[in-house]
Amino acid sequence: MPPYRSPVPDGTIALDDARWSTLRHAYGAATDTPEALRALARTRWPDDIAIWSDLYGSLCHQGAVFPATFAAVPHLVRFVGPGDLRRRVDVLSFVGALAMDPFARDAAPPELAPAYDAALSTMRDCALDILRAANSAGRRAKGSIVPSLIAGTVALHCGAVRGLSLCEGNSVEAGWFSGSCPACEREVRFIVDAEGIREIESLDGKRRTPQRVLEPSRLRPALPAARTIITNESNAPWPAELALAFTAALADELDDAALGEAVIQLDAVIECSRCRAAVRVADHGY
């Protein structure tokens, strides 16, 4: 049984609290959520796949969040301490999916918000350690967990990017995302990959206009240092300021230069083609 490794934040609603019956998820009262969270503590991969499917379906249904979501996330902090790497990656991926929505936090009930915020902070701090643990895994293990780990880490560290697609299952993709300019609110679709940053201007995705880059990504100069640290696999702590550079370097380790480039370019500043505002790519959101 995977042990609970980390304490839950103050203010977390206990699993036996009667208030779960008053909280809602996608399918109604969240009376089944406490048992799903208990079940995670009793299982390991792959026996937990159905449990995660239920949690995604009820708490993050098609990207939507619910009051029960904010009550459940603090309990997931229990699983991000040293322990089962696959479980830690699954938790980070789930919380990262929530963090991709820039307005999800606005839906948090006031009494649940402090514990939820504390949980996100803990997840953000643990992401680097989980990246490091994944780097120490064998290449086959990396291939199965690193893509979703990268997506979760980017969402927690790089800001909310609605619709960002860095991976799907175990298949790594380039960075497609949709959002709107924070200055003029014009809706846009981008592809961010090894060819640069291009706006998609046709429904079939074939007409792509290169974007004017005003400031190059600050992540690119940090990439050599991140690659060196990953290659050395020493016991020295990984610098927190290199968190995103590590995700790009790990993508390179998987021979997926497009994914690594997509992560790097998210920090670039481009010019909005309508209002000419200078906007960081990752700050385009709904």
Coarse morphology: globular
Distinct helical segment count: 9
**What structural class results from the helix and strand content?**
alpha+beta
Q: pLDDT under 50 segments (min length 5)?
A: 167-172
Listing every helix as H and every strand as E from the N terminus to the C terminus, the arrangement reads EEHHHHHHEEEEEEHHHEE
Q: Measured on Cα atoms, how large is the radius of gyration?
A: 19 Å
> Termini, distance in Å?
40 Å
What integer is the average pLDDT? 82
Largest sheet: 5 strands, antiparallel
Spatial order of the strands forming the largest sheet = 3-4-5-6-7
Quantity of strands, as a count = 10
Beta-strand share of residues = 5-15%
Key attributes of the depicted protein:
3-stranded antiparallel sheet, about 290 residues, 5-stranded antiparallel sheet, about 15% strand, alpha+beta, globular
Structural write-up:
The chain is an alpha+beta fold. Helices cover about 40% and strands about 15% of the residues. It has helices at about 35-40, 50-60, 65-75, 85-100, 115-135, 140-155, 225-230, 245-255, 255-265; strands spanning about 25, 30, 165-170, 170-180, 185-195, 195-200, 210, 215, 270, 280. Strands 3-4-5-6-7 form a 5-stranded antiparallel β-sheet. Strands 8-9-10 form a 3-stranded antiparallel β-sheet, with no helix packed on it. Strands 1-2 form a two-stranded antiparallel ribbon. Helix 1 (about 35-40) runs antiparallel to helix 2 (about 50-60), helix 6 (about 140-155) packs antiparallel against helix 8 (about 245-255) and helix 7 (about 225-230) crosses helix 8. The chain is globular. The protein starts with about 25 loop residues before the first strand and ends in a 6-residue tail after the last strand.
